[in-house]
Amino acid sequence: MSVFTRMLGKPDEATIPYASDSLEGLIARWVQWGASSKVEVNPIADFTGEYSGNLQPEDVWFLAGCFGGVVERTCVIPGNKKLLVPVFNMWFTEHYQPPDLSKAHGFMTLNGQEVPLDTIRTKDHFVVRGVWGNPVTGSILPCKMRVGGLWKLLDPLPVGEHELYFRGGDGDGFFLEVTYKLKVLS
Prior knowledge:
- By secondary structure, the chain is mainly beta.
- The chain has one domain (3-185).
- The protein has helices spanning 3-7, 23-34, and strands at 60-62, 69-78, 82-93, 105-110, 113-114, 118-121, 126-128, 143-154, 160-169, 175-185.
- A hairpin with a 2-residue loop joins strand 4 and strand 5.
């Protein structure tokens, strides 16, 4: 896809060196998803859940953290998809060393039950092609990135209403706290 097309707000796909359904591939695809919409309609910058369904892939449902602070979102999701949840993550370009995640912390509950988290990071750079006005790369030019953090890939949830809560931080003052009121459809 051309730079001109991304200027018009049409997303592109990440070029990733991982199997698309591997954990590394999923988190790389999640970063591309975050760069695929401008900030005004971006699921990461969304405070209500209104944009949580934007540009979702066919094989998994991406949930979003936030850029810091406390957010509560309500969204409707399909019942037949796994959910990828970024409890705390950091993405960075090729010009920076990977951040030290040793002080990163996080916690997640689903319907009040604690869910163990996975530390996942990409070792290799992948190319992200964002749209104009995206909050991830800040550019429409291709950007080599890596990502790492605390994540969870959840199995599809049963039909009905669920509450997903998570909080996390970098250990140096940045924190986020997100509550999702999820309505799962059949």
